[in-house]
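Table S2 (continued). Query chain:
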Amino acid sequence: MREALEEAEKYSATPVRLAGVNENRTTGNWLVAAYTHDTSRELDPQLHTHVVAANLTYDGVEGRWKALQVSGLYDRRSYLTEVYRNALAREVRALGYEIEDRRDTRGRDKGFEIAGCSQDLLDKYSQRLAQRDAAIQEFTRERGRAPTDNEVAVLVRETRADKLQEISTERVRNPPRATPAHSPHGGERGRGKRLVSRPRIVRREAVVSLDTSRAPAILLCCGDLLRA
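Corresponding output:
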């Protein structure tokens, strides 16, 4: 993650709108926080990181903090994705794992998986993917066409579970079962209701990529909230 962020940082810029000038000036610095999770909202194993960039960059020419211009980052999304994937693949192999490329049904690159993991195992721990695919199928059936990329993004948001902000390690590993609405001897067992809670949030850390010699006083809270 750090390697990808440092590469992305090179393309940070700020708008210049002085004396009739209308351009972007490369600054090569930004302020970001990275939050690492190791489960999905359905508690499947899923190591991933959310990165939030502040709308700040230091303009060395003007000697002040200004708004961040990210068009250069968006233009290089595919390249930066590959930087991240290649760094991750290198580190995974350094740990002794073999990897294999993954492609979708249309032959498009989908990154890589650890070799030896069966498709059944991947499917078992890909509940969010299954939920997304089911939503896409329903959309297509109802409207007679496949959703656009933007519509898929909306479907993903609409089908995901709510976040739980705080949860203990013990509860993640051994989620409590809800008490059925009626006794087993009474016939009703709460059909259609989820009997296992879905706690989440596993680990968070803040990472700063910035030349602190020019930075104002900034306080960042760092640390592991939970190690699974």
